Fold this protein.
Amino acid sequence: MRNDAESPAPCPPEGFSPDEQVRVCAQADLLPDGRFGSEWLVIGEQHLWVIADGDGATPRIELPLDELSDATAQTLVGGGALEVSRNGTHIELVRYTNARAGRFTTVAGALGKWLSGEEAEVPEEDEKRCPRCGLPLAEGTKVCPACLPRSQTLRRLALYLLPAWRQALGLSLIALAHTALGLIPPYLQKPLMDEVLAPRGEPRPVDERVRLLGTLVLALLIAHVLMSGLGAARAWLSAWLGNRISHDIRVQLYRHLQFLSLGFYDKQQMGNVISRVNQDTGRLQEFLVWGSQDLATNLLLIVGITIVLLVMNAKLALFVFLPAPIVVLLSTVVWKRVRHYMHRFFHRWGRLNAVLNETLSGLRVTKAFGQEPRHIDDFSSRSLELAISGTGVERVWSILFSGMSLVMMLGTLLVWYVGGREVLFGPMSLGTLVAFLTYVGMFYQPLRFMSMLLNWASRSLAAGERVFEVLDTEPEVAEAEEPVAMPEMQGRVSFRDVSFGYEPHRPVLKGISCEVEAGEMIGLVGQSGAGKTTTINLICRFYDTDAGEVLIDGVPIRDIHIEDLRRHIGIVPQDTFLFSGTIAENIAYAKPGATREEIVRAARIANAHEFIVKKPDGYETLLGERGQGLSAGEQQRLSIARAVLHDPAILILDEATSQVDVETEKGIQEAIDRLVKSRTTFAIAHRLATLKNADRLFVLKDGEIAEMGTHDELLAAEGEFYRLVQTYQDISAVSAVQR
Amino acid sequence: MSEETLPTGSADEPGAEWPELPPEGRTLAPADVCFRREDARLQMREGEGEWREVSVVRLFPLSEPERWLAVLDDKQADIGLLCDLEGFEPEQRLLLEDELRRRYLTPVITAISAIRHRGDVAEWTVATDRGETSIVVRNVREKVKEPLPGHLTIEDAQGNRYEIPHRAALDAASRRLLDMEI
């Protein structure tokens, strides 16, 4: 068995007591042969040991640190291995699964530093498991869904009722009255039988009976009118309430998603996030609108009828309750199966939708390769699967319903027989029996829905939990407690020994330091993965640094009022993102109140004006989703116009000319040259010629600044930049020939 | 690069209408290469050439775990292809199989003894080729995938992957548990 955190094992393990100070201890979850099991890596001041489970006295490996070098965490498929070198040979210390990979990567980093004589700290292990039940927690949350008490979720949902407490109270009263009223008509059947239609013993005079008949029917009429009215009011009010609550939750969730850091979206799949907004709030709404009132009234009905039955005839009531456990049991068991079939049905439905979406979006490719028949076959077989599982759902449903009706009918028949004997030989009146039978019918009805409703309720609560899980996630990039307002910004940017990684144990930037003067244009060059985009992400404060500081005009970026920071930073991203709307709206995206004059001027500066005027609708040309209808170069120019209008102190160009041909690039380059004047600019470009006008170039390599200087200086130095230029020239020569 | 001097390709080379392959895409014949283990690393030499550190990866890890293996050098650059482990000397073959077992830490589930639900997560108690364990799966419907017909992969909450290569080959009880789940 793998060691679950339910009982965290002591580290270092018992029985192992080294003579020196232990610097770090980490538990691995695989044995050397790859089987599950525990081993411990213990690193002291002079030695390291690997200790097998239950054998603390004799370590499996003992190595003196001064003979070792190079600690690496090898990434394997599904896990990894920690290795060190000794006289040029590699020694595998421990193996572990992905569950422990983060920890061992950190340990390997620290060990590597210790071996080369540097200082290093190994942070305490993050608690990634729920302290109560030991289940692993989802990335980025501290709430364990399994341990979260349901009552807490209910309480939180109830809090949303507070603003509308009057309506909620009214709804409860109406539901109560409606249910209570529902119990009256059958009760009136009793005098109708016993006093009017089939009286026992000495009958009353006929005219009195007729009067009574009229009164009773009138009473029934009033009861039914009231019930209809209350029923309508109840449905309307609960729909109002449910929709209002789910609206509040949905908007709150969306607002929270807008303010969550990019780090959250790196860890979550976008589809998951979207389904939380869509499905989970939808499911909550459905339940809040319909399920909750069904559940409440059914419960009330069951309790009410039970009392009435017991009062009317306790002995007969027992015969009614006899099949009740069977009904509940049966519906619980069958419901499980139904749920399983339904899940499968909806899952297949979702898959069919996914196939439909994908294949139709890729229709160009399908047609180009003539693969239509394959997609038709695929679709048809999935559709058939759906049909089969749909039939399965119905089959189970029908069996469930017929079976339950039968069981319930047995109960009713039992009452007929026993009650009938009571009427024939005992003191019971016909009216009592008829009323009783009506109640019995009303009693079983809610009973068979109870287990389904309870299930519905629990699924909705789970949906609520998922929503709250997101709401409870704190944005990682948060406003400082006392933010520094910056109405004006010069644009002086400093990096002081900045380290950062998207996953803390995998640094992308390693101790970057640089000073950029206001108005300077900096070109960032380097291979992909060198850390160019990451540098930019830190200037924009999409992420916070792990170590070191980024300062703007001498103020740490963490302390700057986020709104001010974003107002003074403009970005022309690699992937232009245009929202659906008109061209003018898209240009004015960062400045919604911009005048027409400003918009046209921005478009002119961005060299976008000329293509816009050719469109029949000019600046009011509607763009589809993601800028449909424009070429890549046109989109990029709009994106530049957007940045022009934003008029930032710090401008960031992330591969702004990557997707266009040489001719278009010239136009864009002109636009950029106009844009960068008098602003601090950071530009990333793979085409190094784009950066000719840069004041200085920073050459990044493996997360460090390898070289810094002007274009000519760097060329003269014949270093990393020179090498990049050489490669680039080779490639351009080739592409020139091909063209 | 020294590849030009080495034998390029074997009978497996595709037909003449294909464009010529770069030298890195060679097929390594069992007779031409020799493997050995040095400490924690696998080494290979071609003919009487230098020993160099290599790693062996599966190109089709799901459907062809023992065939279509790529040999990479210590910079992860492609050296060549091993089409099949058949044809290697038993001792060489063991060495390669061992290396694959070392690299692919994806346990194969042989039996499922229980699936417990706690809120949104499912806890599976399973027997695997690496021993018994319990795996915690969040969002089962998305984390259990069927990349090939009848071949399931399960990703647990900690990013580990488990495999069920032949769903139909599980015992009846395991199959029933699995059927209720997906």
Summary: Chain B has two domains: 3-103, 109-181. The helical segments of chain B are 90-103, 140-143, 172-181.
